[in-house]
Write a structure and sequence with these properties.
alpha/beta, TIM Barrel, six-stranded parallel β-sheet, three-stranded parallel β-sheet, 9 strands, 36% helix, globular
Length: 243
Amino acid sequence: MIDLHCHILPALDDGAPDLEDSAAMARQAAADGIEAICATPHIRHDHDVHVQEIAGRIKVLQERLDEEGTSVTVLQGGEVAETAVEGLGEEELALVALGGGGWILLEPAPGPLSASLARRVEHLAQRGHRSLIAHPERHLSPDMFQRLVGLIGAGALVQGTADFFLHDETAPGMLALAEAGLVHVLGSDSHSSRHGRPPQLAAALARLATVERLAPDLGWIAQTAPRAIIEGAPLEPPFAPGG
């Protein structure tokens, strides 16, 4: 499995505070069957992340993991706020593309999804990038499903947060998204080994296997789509969105 959304780089944003925590996150991920993690620090105004430094920080972490024998590969990425997209140059966008494959993990602005997110998806498409919409579960509104359908029609895909499929208070909403064909891949959105969401995907994939609409395409969700995203390979979902 590939975790497309993880704040594993140490002392960079609101994720792992130090290298020890980063290494522990990688060990947790490996135990869950995750073989690669996209490091996705926040790219937005309230985090002082310098895009050009991400590769060097990944190198330091990967060296630590290799030394201790943790079989996880850390890949480049970034969680790019929709409000930051237009301020990034071509080189910067390339440096935060998931795995270097051209897909951008796009964080919607707080509040309900709006036309501004659709404009940013179009903006990225015009620059040769496809969008992966992060944690839609944070943007509940009466028209959320309709807006996600529109974004998918414009070439975006949707990433659900794995841990939200596992708790009584959040699972019904996540499963409703899945039943509507509005979840294409999972990410942990983990920030630490010590608290919060763990860097794990397997249990959430097991819950998705119970969704009749998606069960036939679980392999696509778990393997095919994440691999294509990090490799920049052609990718179209095998199921259509909608009720």
